[in-house]
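Sample 3 of the quickstart, ligand inosinic acid:
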Amino acid sequence: MRFTFKHIMKKKLVFVTNNSNKLEEVHALLGNNVQLLSLKDIYCQEDIPETAETLEDNALLKARYVKKNYNLDCFADDTGLEVKALDNAPGVYSARYAGESKDPKINRQKLLRNLEKEKDRSAQFRTVIALIIGEKEYLFEGIVKGEIIREEKGTGGFGYDSIFVPEGYDQTFAELGTEIKNTISHRAMAVNKLKQFLNENE
Ligand code: IMP
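Result:
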């Protein structure tokens, strides 16, 4: 293999997040081919408002903010839990399903209450990643299907993990632990698509 400038210089990409867990998870998935920068690394202290009505538009909104203000290639993600019997709610509003306090426990309780009488408890986590390289925008999607159980199980994870059992498993994400979750999760699927794209196009 001939080594060119491209092989020596790692591609710099900003991951538009302030969440250090996410940053670590995505860094592990992307590997060392990319130099991943966080918002902190570029001295961006803005809490970029996620005001759009779809996961795609929210991810684009965050990525476009960094592109416009810092002129750096970047990607942003947005995730929602889509519950079939609730017309795909809470979806893009997953973080603030029960109000602006964004309390995950109260969100879970509200969801369990709203599903009390439903037989169909199927749901999916969906992650969308928006990537901007130069002037071009790309979207990648990751989905994990499963169902919402009737009461919380497990202490690991975050958000809706303790009430979501992924297809093919009989434990919640909170019980399965991060190692298994990170290999099958919606975010992992989307990041793997991003990784494949970067490997093929850079
Ligand atoms: P975000 O777009 O990653 O910030 O996710 C929005 C909301 O979706 C979070 O506040 C959580 O309520 C929920 N969520 C996202 N990813 C997960 C996950 O992997 N497990 C459980 N809940 C999640």
